[in-house]
Amino acid sequence: MPTTARVLGLSLGALTLAGLTACGSGTTTEASAGPGKPGKITVAASDTDCKVAATEVTAGTSTFTITNGGTKVTEFYVYAPGDRVMAELENIVPGLTRELVAELPAGTYEAVCKPGMVGKGIRNPLKVTGDHKPLSQDVKLADAIASYKRYIKSQSDTLLVKTQEFADAVKAGDLAKGKELYPVARTYWERIEPVAEIFGELDPAIDAREADLAAGEKWTGFHKIEKDLWITKDVSKDGPVADKLVADVKTIVAKSNAAELTPLNLANGAKGLLDEVASGKITGEEDIWSHTDLWDFDANLQGSKAAVQALRPVLEERSPDLVKTLDEQFAAAEAALGAHRKGDGWKLHNELSKAELKSLSDAINALAEPISKIAPIVAK
Fold this sequence. Notes:
By secondary structure, the chain is of the alpha+beta class. About 50% of the residues lie in helices and about 15% in strands. A hairpin with an 8-residue loop joins β8 and β9 (about 120-130).
């Protein structure tokens, strides 16, 4: 989830992002795409501008090469009407160039930069014309989508159950039960977040933190209740917030289960979940009051693995060496995290030393490098 806190708190985060973005970043400086052409589209982002080299491309897969020449961390999105996310790339730090592979059918879109990772962003019209054969017409890629959607359904169904339990505890004023259920419910949310983020404003309604809010914006969702559980220690006024959280989760669950996904949603989502770890969980700014970041860390890792495993038959056919590397690096990352098990859960973030956090960061960086290679392979 993008936040201004990520802009402000990047001491360790900058280290992890440097490793994550070094793998899968492009250095293209000229667009090979233009009106009516597919290919690479350069995007020059700054604190005040978002210059997209092409306003029209042909349907199919295009690669956006985004360079952040500003002073703020930025994000890049391709929005369909209604701000439905077709493709996204978060945490593009100043001075960095990164690539995003997107599959776009014919239609009208917007290419959007978000300096500071807040607000509606700087928007550019993007027209996609012509016909293309969807990647999902490949039988194995279609099977991958079906497999991943089964995973999404299992996780989202449980998300709804656990969120209701959490909301009931909050409405009953049971602080201890609320604290116990908070990281459990969020586990299921974090596993499906790449799909949940497709649906625009519902994601911040559920997952926005205090630092995310624009002036005058109403705060709702998990983190509003988190602050009241751990800091104010008073949830007596959070009944409406809890009810809205359940209602928003119900909507997300219904939309997620009905969503039409592409193979690149899986590939980019797997990488995006690791960026979540690097930008929030490692730094401790995701669950700033409860310090339950490692529950989210584990959920992001599991969600990333589920997306990769769904694509495994395709990857085994097209790049067996990459599959071997992915298996090794997932095992290493899981082992690094597993060292911090505590009972049925995890140690709190503030119980880990800088050296332990650095070790986790290194494991995620090592995994992010091969994962960044999946989208181009899928797009072949």
